[in-house]
Specification:
homodimer, alpha/beta, Laminin, Aspartate Aminotransferase, domain 2, Aspartate Aminotransferase, domain 1, seven-stranded mixed β-sheet, four-stranded antiparallel β-sheet, 13 helices
Chain lengths: 462, 462
């Protein structure tokens, strides 16, 4: 009898033990999935922290950040404009529709959808040195990815060109002006751009106040002065143009004219790509490609070796090359761009988003005689291999009524903030409206414009 | 009998099952440790990749990087200078001892020892915007950590001071020169420094070639010209000085003199901290604090609001603020600095490393009449609360023989590369030797110096 009892006890223990084994097995191998076999050690804590931050719910109108505020150890939501409360669920009714800055946050949902492939783990000892293995300041893996990116996007020819990295195109524009200015000349180079132009060209050139260059405003004013080879001119050519989305061409030509082609927006998101750009000096930025304005990373494609060397010197003396952390982040992001559908996925997402926004805005504006926006014709795109409609980054809105000379004031009255035309040297009958921001920003903008347009119609029929 | 057999079978199965449970338990709870309960999802793959890279063995003479070269999916070792082969185990005998650049890689072992606390996981959508929640370009969490850091290190007074972020002190030095230069003056400010001075001051000021300032060399030459308030002077004061480690004071004083205090090396690693610095404009950098030169992050403490605003403008026009990725990395690193032993741990590690290097080099040089290095007296340090011996970042080596006027050439002959005195406007009888680099670099330098000194003695006794 005692033996039978003991035998039952053994069976009981065995069953319990087997059940426990099953629990452990499931926990260890099934729940933890594909990567469960990796015995994570030093990265585990940081990964858990980052996932805890990402898991905070902000109602789709905000997000928490690893370097944001924590209260009682809990990360706090940072809400989109006009949303508030602990979980960003409260909408402020009278809030201003902000269409001012070109913050490219419309791409945030893309990266949330690609969380696993875009996550990055940085070891504490990652790239501590001033230099990479070849004693340069730039990651050659990143350079390779940039060349591949252009060949997939079909927007620029990289062969036979050097690549300079900068902290966004902002820094590269300045580096390019320095590099193209005469080294020893009695008179400074004239820096010009076509109206309407991106304000940074003027602000930056004025601020750095160099002996070698001076901002001289509208390019067309200098059309008859370019044959004199002693008068150096540097022209900014922006394509697509900020603010109006036009694929600008150089205004000036001649032996003493040098050109900086600002292609920040030359991606299938914002424009048809008629052919790959192949100019001597072109700048690009990750801000308007992946939406990571905060990373401050851009690059220039440069044909002439001497100009390239001077731009590299600029980068050395201004900050000893772009942060390796920004370079690592850019590399990770470009890997996702290239790997997901061979580049198709992000361009498709970005184009669809911008296209829909433009169509909805155009629809509303088309019912109004008080306002107009720029016309952009459908064009064949070599990337999408079809004729495609416009999807610009900005609406260049015009107040058509003769008495409404200050268009910004008209919009402000309607609780909309745009960027005044005078900032682009174009007069205040125009306002730039940013279409790049969050869905929340765009929806509010559209609602306000709608109200403005329908009120005007109502007042007319009365 | 059958029952006894079965009973034995049960016991056997039970023992096996219990052993299996034990294996699972250890695996799940002990090996995976504290964070094992976190069910990682999107960060798992990136974490596994980073750990795989970190696990590559490079024999202690190199390391693999996430953004380095991969061959057949395997990350490749990047070896310290003079080491080669797939695992960096091969030493090149005739290789040059490189004591040139101030690459602060001596701190790399500290970060490898603190792998878990210094690891960083970045989500794909982290800080995409141009601005933080308060519309600024800077992380206030990071700013708070910087203030706490100075109070723990006891090296600077931060209360009543603004903080500007820059891409390393390199960029902040330039921003400071712009901010202190007169806005509307007929003559440019004279930018000066005491010989021997850090070459970047001159290179940078010359390169940016502004209408508002001009490099004018040695500060002492302008001692009699500072009473004229129309002649603006900007003096760089470097403490500890690069190259010679001296705690420099301003050379010039007067109503028209403005001073930039470069405190890149003012940490307990490199100098006794006699008292917290409390000047109007001070620059610091993470490069020489944590060793992360590659991250390009530094900050300035600025008393005057107008100067602060002009430095912020500089940062805006040069690159729209420092990369958020560099800011996030700096925050993580400063957290480790502050958390581990309340700041004591890194300062202790860094001081011990630099102190031992200096003692060993001094020992060798003291036996020589041909060479000398600068004398630094022991001094009371308010951080360590004791009198401590010297531990400078560089040896400022002098060739004492009258005929050896080109000290760099003497060292080159002995297969040592330093930085020539003329680069510091000090003449070529001096050479700067960097003591900040890897253990491999330092050991080779010491061996070569040893040989040089003992050969000279031998040749004399013959």
């Amino acid at each position: 009898m005692a033996k039978i009892q003991r035998s039952k006890l053994y069976v009981g223990c065995l069953l319990f033990s087997v059940a426990l084994n099953l629990y452990f097995f499931i926990n260890l191998h099934l729940i933890r999935g594909k990567w469960s076999n990796y015995q994570l050690s030093w990265s585990l804590q940081a990964a858990a922290e980052a996932e805890a931050v990402a898991a905070v719910s902000c109602s789709g109108h905000g997000r928490a950040y690893l370097d944001g505020l924590f209260v009682d150890g809990k990360p706090i939501c940072e809400c989109n404009s006009c949303f508030g409360g602990p979980d960003c669920s409260q909408f402020s009714d009278g809030c201003v529709a902000d269409a001012d800055s070109g913050d490219p946050v419309f791409l945030e949902p893309f990266w949330m959808q690609h969380a696993a492939s875009s996550a990055l783990v940085v070891a504490g000892w990652h790239r501590m040195s001033y230099v990479f293995d070849d004693q340069s300041f730039i990651s050659h893996e990143l350079e390779k990815h940039i060349r591949k990116l252009h060949s997939i996007a079909k927007n620029a020819v990289t062969s036979g060109k050097y690549i300079v990295f900068g902290a966004g195109s902002t820094q590269l524009l300045s580096a390019a002006v320095y590099a193209l200015s005469p080294e020893n000349s009695s008179s400074p180079a004239k820096v010009v751009a076509s109206v309407p132009y991106y304000p940074m060209y003027e602000l930056q050139t004025d601020f750095f106040n160099s002996v070698s260059f001076k901002f001289e405003g509208d390019a067309s004013l200098w059309r008859n002065h370019t044959s004199d080879s002693t008068k150096n001119v540097i022209e900014f050519v922006t394509a697509p143009n900020n603010p109006d989305g036009k694929l600008n061409k150089p205004t000036l030509q001649g032996p003493s004219v040098k050109t900086i082609h600002d292609h920040a927006y030359f991606w299938p998101h914002f424009t048809a790509i008629p052919a790959p750009a192949d100019e001597d000096l072109m700048t690009f930025t990750i801000s308007k490609l992946t939406g990571h304005a905060g990373s401050r990373f851009g690059w220039a494609l440069v044909k002439d070796e001497a100009v390239y060397q001077r731009m590299v010197r600029y980068m050395t003396f201004s900050e000893m090359g772009v942060s390796r952390d920004a370079q690592l982040r850019a590399l990770k992001l470009l890997k996702v761009v290239l790997e997901e559908g061979d580049g198709k996925e992000i361009f498709e997402f970005a184009y669809q988003t911008m296209r829909k926004r433009w169509e909805r805005l155009s629809q509303v504006i088309s019912t109004s005689k008080r306002f107009s926006i720029q016309e952009i014709l459908p064009q064949f795109c070599t990337f999408f291999q079809k004729v495609r409609g416009p999807s610009p980054a900005y609406a260049w809105l015009k107040c058509e009524r003769e008495e409404e000379e200050d268009c910004g004031a008209v919009l402000k009255e309607a609780n909309i903030i745009g960027r005044e035309g005078s900032m682009f040297a174009a007069g205040n009958r125009h306002v730039r409206l940013s279409l790049l921001r969050t869905d929340d920003d765009f929806e509010l903008l559209l609602r306000r414009i709608n109200t403005l347009v329908s009120e005007q119609d109502r007042s007319k029929t009365m």
